[in-house]
Specification:
Blueprint lengths: L13 H5 L9 H10 L15 H12 L5 H16 L5 H16 L6 H14 L5 H14 L4 H18 L13 H7 L9 H19 L4 H6 L11 H21 L4 H21 L31
Amino acid sequence: MSLTTAKPVQIKTMEQLFMRGRSRLLSWRCFWGILMKSPLNQRVHSQLGKLPVSQCCEFFYTLSCNLLNTEELAAMQVLSSMLFLLPDETQHTQKARATLLRRSFQLAPTVEPMMVHYFTENLLKYFQPGHHLNSSHLLGIANYIATKCAIGKAVAVCLLWSIIYECGETEILIHQYRELSTLCNILNEVCVSRMNVTSFGILLRSIGTLLHLLLCGQGLRDFLTHGYPASFFRILPQDVQKLIDWVKNALEEFALRRPGALQRARYAAKKLLTSLDYLDAHGIQWCLVCRDAQGQPFDDCIKYCVLSDIRIK
């Protein structure tokens, strides 16, 4: 019987990890450039790229234990977002990168609107929506940070609004919470006939994720306590019907102009329509699994409901 020697686990350096990036935005050159232009540049050394990924994440985590100002925190959020998005099957480095991203938002103790705008704008300056890959990056970031802390959820909501507004070719001046009646108006500006099925799918997931974050109960008390209007966290029945009509009309548009992509478009729309049908069938303004009849969140709010299914791939 022959004995085989197990292959040693290859420890990736930062530069090696970035070689797997799928876009120019996820390159070591861009990462280093952002770091050198940020106020964090005085706190790092030039050999950072040669460090193992886990050690580099630990370095940034330790750095975050110092008192960071708002500009430094915003730079940390962009850098940790880049690390988070990189493909890597190594479990311990995945966890280290996710922890760093969570930490970069948890350090901001407030959901004050101008702070939310600043952090959102800073992320959008780098991950500019428009190209479907950039929007996919933003959707991935929003999905993760939304459940980690109040400021993470606030920025996630604004990132989702930015994706939707970009699809409607409408400019946003201030990144902030909005009433969901606005959603119908923006979607009427979207030219579905010019969209490919990938961009269409990202738009639908952005809409569904937005509905989940605003209509379910997680973190709701934090926002109401900070003076956010309750009207941001409900949707009127007539607006639910408008959204259902819009999705069905969009699918008809695909059937006419892109019949080869219709099946994929229908698949992308399935979860969103399930969420909308749930709201429509019960004539409700929010999720009754997560909130009571008066709209107050349950103390023991469960993690899964019909609206949350849109975020599960």
